[in-house]
């Protein structure tokens, strides 16, 4: 969607908004919702990662990641809970703000935690306003299907861009009977209807988690807005992973890694080795040496 007048087009919007850019076309623009729609129109893909702090936000932004999600998965990956259910808006807002102020290019998406939007559209608007005003997010994400269409509509009317999350929705893990693939067989039709209802309500993007690749492809084909997948095959417009999974920080004895995760690094081993070496050098009196002393 091109700006409609030169007044609306800031100089930085003339260059490539996604990817890492190049010397001739540096990535100086902020990724916006309409850039994601353009990506789908052009048959391009984009990437989202979770981030919960300034260093990862800066690094992922520098790498060209188009969207950063401050997921309610902070419950597990930051606060150490078993599920995503306990995390609160008050606990997420400082993380959202840290990421938003550290990433100059990525679109920042704040995740609605369990209990922060289900009661009414008014509750959802109030939570969305907090994430945009106090957290400096650019958009929010909520879990749920067609049932939340009125909520999404009300938020979009209030000026809050909404990403909808369907398929396996971790906040409902007790209702769904655990981590289970959704949208198999006849259930695919329900997922398509959910996605269409959310698109009609104004969602700018639909995220699908743990959905068969064929179902996710059918959902993507049924929608005009872009889709994002996690465990949903490769026909979606974008992909998302939790960064600790992507970089291999989460792992070790007894930790199960989901089938849909690809580990692009082994940060756990790198950190473990570094911490062990530091420990040894402190215990043996090698650190600090003269070069680290005043
Ligand atoms: O909270 C989160 O990290 C998420 C992703 C798994 C999509 O919702």
From TrEMBL:
A single GO cellular-component term on record: cytoplasm
CDD domains (alphabetical): KPHMT-like
EC number: 2.1.2.11
Pathway(s) it belongs to: Cofactor biosynthesis; (R)-pantothenate biosynthesis; (R)-pantoate from 3-methyl-2-oxobutanoate: step 1/2
Subcellular localization, as worded in the UniProt entry: Cytoplasm
Keywords: Cytoplasm, Magnesium, Metal-binding, Pantothenate biosynthesis, Transferase
UniProt catalytic activity: (6R)-5,10-methylene-5,6,7,8-tetrahydrofolate + 3-methyl-2-oxobutanoate + H2O = 2-dehydropantoate + (6S)-5,6,7,8-tetrahydrofolate
Main localization, broad class: cytoplasm
Cofactor: binding details: Binds 1 Mg(2+) ion per subunit.
Active site per database record: 209
Disordered: region residues: 1-27
Main enzyme class: transferase
Cofactor or coenzyme needed: Mg(2+)
Binding site for Mg(2+): 72, 111, 143
Single Gene Ontology BP annotation: pantothenate biosynthetic process
A GO molecular-function annotation: magnesium ion binding
Residues bound to 3-methyl-2-oxobutanoate: 72-73, 111, 141
Subunit structure: Homodecamer; pentamer of dimers.
HAMAP family, A to Z: PanB
Similarity-based family: Belongs to the PanB family.
Role description: Catalyzes the reversible reaction in which hydroxymethyl group from 5,10-methylenetetrahydrofolate is transferred onto alpha-ketoisovalerate to form ketopantoate.
Name of the protein: 3-methyl-2-oxobutanoate hydroxymethyltransferase
Taxonomic source organism: Sinomonas puerhi
Organism ancestry: Bacteria, Bacillati, Actinomycetota, Actinomycetes, Micrococcales
């Amino acid at each position: 969607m091109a700006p409609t007048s030169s007044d609306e087009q800031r100089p930085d919007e003339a260059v490539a908004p996604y990817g890492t850019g190049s010397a001739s076309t540096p990535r100086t623009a902020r990724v916006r919702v309409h850039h994601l729609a353009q990506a789908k129109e052009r048959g391009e893909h984009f990437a989202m990662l979770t981030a919960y702090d300034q260093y990862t936000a800066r690094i992922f932004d520098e790498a060209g990641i188009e969207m950063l999600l401050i997921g309610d998965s902070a419950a597990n990956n930051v606060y150490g809970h078993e599920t995503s259910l306990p995390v609160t808006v008050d606990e997420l807002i400082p993380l959202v703000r840290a990421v938003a102020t550290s990433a100059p290019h990525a679109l920042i998406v704040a995740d609605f935690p369990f209990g922060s939007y289900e009661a009414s559209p008014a509750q959802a608007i109030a939570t969305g306003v907090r994430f945009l005003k106090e957290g400096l997010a650019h958009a929010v994400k909520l879990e749920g299907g067609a049932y939340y269409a009125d909520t999404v509509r009300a938020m979009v009317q209030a000026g809050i861009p909404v990403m909808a999350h369907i398929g396996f929705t971790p906040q409902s893990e007790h209702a769904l009977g655990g981590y289970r693939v959704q949208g198999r067989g006849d259930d695919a039709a329900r997922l398509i209807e959910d996605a269409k209802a959310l698109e009609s309500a104004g969602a700018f993007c639909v995220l699908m988690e743990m959905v068969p690749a064929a179902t996710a492809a059918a959902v993507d084909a049924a929608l005009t807005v872009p889709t994002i997948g996690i465990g949903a095959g490769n026909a979606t417009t974008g992909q998302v992973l939790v960064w600790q999974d992507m970089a291999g920080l989460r792992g070790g004895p007894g930790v199960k890694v989901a089938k849909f995760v690809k580990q692009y690094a082994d940060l756990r081993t790198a950190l473990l080795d570094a911490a062990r070496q530091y420990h040894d050098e402190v215990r043996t009196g090698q650190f600090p040496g003269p070069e680290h002393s005043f």
